[in-house]
């Protein structure tokens, strides 16, 4: 089975990325032929400048390996190392109705958040479809925010097959894990790099443990007084805690909310402790990799070769089918 997923180098990787995409990717690399990529063309839709972009790509490559993606098992590569993906995106654009793009939530959300409504951001789903279809991917693990983009991908593959022949493109399945489909951010919206509401998997070197703890203390809560019972439904603290803590600890956290007498500061401290311990091995691995950039670069270079070999086959098949060759 061919598995594929990508993450954007648009800022520090956060726990939503981890549970929505990274953890499933690590699990799936043992179950099939996996392709995992750094979506650097996509990140250009919201990029600040070239230097930051380059730094973000480097950091994401390190994060991939620190989180457990294994170059012995999976092909790890950078999207722009296979520029032919743009050709497939163009071919897909020719069968992509405007209405499909106009209805895309992700585009509307980003524009509502103040990003420029550039053409690339609007056409993002066509490039994302090309990312997936260029590698004959059969299974794509993602967070729920990508559900609609995957539907568009399936739709476009179907249109190409209808028009140019069955088997021109492989129609992929999506995998969305119910309990980690949408990890909430500190403010309760979906955690997103571009919303500045994230809890990083590995904080940047410039950030102390104390500053990260402060972030956790910012998690949005209501104003129930310390002595009163606190709501458990829709509690961001509890929802985040569930990602890291044992079942027994989660039950205790819920019981303590219901009993009253304990303040949110205490609950957030428990959340911080569980989170900090959970990612300790990944932080350690990351620190090691920071000092071994030659290895990281070598992984990406090898991944590019493997990705190119696969993409060439698929693109040749598509070019022939649509009459470009
Ligand atoms: P940006 O704000 O730049 O779009 P992002 O934080 O949404 O960044 P992406 O790189 O767009 O991250 O997404 C990478 C993967 O992480 C996708 O599979 C996406 O579904 C998943 N993901 C992102 N945010 C969450 C979240 N809050 N919960 C679960 N999965 C998420
Ligand atoms: Mg996103």
Note poorly predicted spans. none
**Ligands bound to this protein structure:** adenosine-5'-triphosphate, magnesium ion
> Total strand count, please?
5
How many individual domains? 2
Taken from the alpha-carbon principal axes, the silhouette is globular
Radius of gyration: 21 Å
CATH 2nd-level architecture of the largest domain: 3-Layer(aba) Sandwich
Kindly estimate the percentage of residues that lie in beta strands according to DSSP: 5-15%
What is the CATH C level class of the largest domain, in words? Alpha Beta
Characterize the biggest β-sheet: 3 strands, parallel
What's the mean pLDDT score? 95
The CATH topology name of the largest domain reads Rossmann fold
Biggest β-sheet: strands ordered side by side in the sheet: 1-2-3
Within CATH, the superfamily of the largest domain carries the name HUPs
Helix content: 40-55%
What is the helix/strand order? Answer: EHEHHEHHHHEHEHHHHHH
* Helix-strand makeup class: mainly alpha
Number of helical runs?
A: 14
């Amino acid at each position: 089975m061919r598995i594929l997923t990508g993450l954007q180098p648009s800022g520090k990787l956060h726990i939503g990325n981890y549970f929505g995409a990274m953890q499933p990717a690590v699990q799936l690399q043992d179950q099939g032929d996996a392709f995992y990529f750094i979506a650097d063309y996509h990140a250009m839709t919201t990029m600040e400048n070239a230097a930051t972009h380059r730094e973000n790509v480097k950091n994401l490559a390190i994060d991939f390996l620190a989180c457990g993606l294994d170059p012995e098992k999976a092909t790890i590569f950078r999207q722009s190392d296979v520029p032919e993906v743009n050709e497939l995106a163009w071919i897909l654009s020719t069968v992509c109705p405007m209405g499909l793009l106009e209805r895309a939530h992700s585009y509307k959300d980003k524009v509502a958040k103040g990003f420029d409504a550039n053409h690339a951001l609007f056409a993002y789903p066509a490039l994302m479809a090309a990312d997936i279809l260029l590698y004959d991917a059969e299974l794509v693990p993602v967070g729920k925010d990508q559900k609609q983009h995957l539907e568009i991908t399936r739709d476009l593959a179907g249109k190409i097959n209808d028009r140019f022949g069955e088997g021109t493109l492989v129609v992929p399945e999506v995998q969305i894990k119910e309990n980690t489909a949408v990890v909430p951010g500190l403010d309760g919206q979906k955690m997103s790099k571009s919303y500045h509401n994230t809890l990083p998997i590995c904080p940047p070197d410039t950030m102390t443990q104390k500053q990260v703890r402060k972030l956790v203390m910012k998690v949005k809560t209501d104003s129930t007084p310390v002595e009163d019972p606190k709501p458990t439904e829709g509690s961001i603290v509890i929802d985040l805690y569930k990602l890291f803590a044992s079942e027994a600890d989660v039950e205790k956290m819920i019981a303590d909310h219901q009993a009253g007498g304990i303040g949110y500061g205490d609950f957030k401290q428990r959340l911080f402790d569980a989170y900090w311990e959970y990612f300790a091995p990944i932080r350690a691995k990351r620190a090691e990799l920071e000092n071994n950039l030659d290895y990281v670069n070598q992984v990406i270079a090898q991944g590019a070769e493997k990705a190119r070999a696969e993409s060439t086959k698929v693109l040749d098949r598509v070019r022939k089918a649509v009459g470009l060759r």
